[in-house]
Amino acid sequence: MNGTRKKVAAGFKLESLYKLPDVRSTDRKMSLLNFVVTTVKTHLPELHSFAQGLDLEDATQVSKQTLSNDIQSLKKGIDLTKKERDKQTDNFVLFSFYNRAFGKVQKVSEKYRKMEEKYIDACQMFGEDGKKMEPSEFFKYFQDFINMYFKAENENDERKKQEEAQRQAEIMMRNQKNKAKTLPSIETAWNYTNDSDAYDDDEDDDDSSSGGSDSS
Predict the structure, then answer these.
(1) What are residue 205's phi and psi, to 5 degrees?
(2) How far apart are CA 40 and CA 157, in angstroms?
(3) pLDDT at site 176
(4) Contacts of 88 (CB under 8 A, 6+ apart)
(5) Could you tell me the pTM of the whole model?
(6) Which residues contact 100 (CB under 8 A, 6 or more apart)?
(7) How high is the mean pLDDT of the chain?
(8) What is the pLDDT of residues 83-133, one digit of tens each?
(9) Strand, coil or helix: what is 48?
(10) What is the DSSP code (8-state) at residue 31?
């Protein structure tokens, strides 16, 4: 967020996307990007598939300067062909080739012009100067963000698994402690058994004594 006294402008530069994994919570367990992924999946699930259909790998290899040079080379080549055609007015093969090639070069040049306009507009939407920024740099921001986004999603899933495993371990330990409290210890059970046996022996002795006195 950038603001001035006169007006407030909301937005971000594409390069700031790289900072999302670096901004972390106080316990260092979660980054801002982890939080963004969680928020999207929870509250905006329709946006979670934003990367589908975005095959940017080839786009990150594009050089605007190289494309421009290629177009200029095609135009120079067709101009040379035109000069030769004008010299050889009776060369019908060259004449036919020039007509076909000229039409194709015109189409390619027009497509390049429209592509450049759309590219500049796209850059402007994200606050970038399309006349200065190469497509390889522009599209790499998005390709890298997609990779970082799904890496953060995997981190979230792994953290959930660890938290669930820890929760289950704590429940098991708690149950074991409660069970230990309710069940008598082996020593207590042993003493109880011995005391019961001693008590039974005393009763048997008493019965024997009583029987002996009766007989006398």
Answers:
(1) -65, -40
(2) 14
(3) 85
(4) 94
(5) 0.68
(6) none
(7) 84
(8) 988 888 888 899 899 999 999 999 999 999 999 999 999 999 999 999 999
(9) coil
(10) B
Phi-psi region of 60 (alpha: psi -120 to 50; beta: other; left: phi over 0): alpha
Distance of CA 40 to the CA centre of its chain: 11
Report whether 75 contacts 109 (CB < 8 A).
yes
Say if residue 3's pLDDT is above 60.
Answer: no
Strands (E), the chain: 2-3, 8-9
Reading the block at residue 19, the tokens are 């900072």
Closest to 160 in 3D by CA, of 51, 45, 48, 37: 37
The share of the chain scoring above pLDDT 90, in percent, equals: 58
Q: What residue type is assigned to position 149 of the chain? A: Y
Are residues 137 and 17 in contact, defined by beta-carbon separation less than 8 angstroms?
A: no
| Residue from 149, 156, 153 nearest 54 by CA | 149
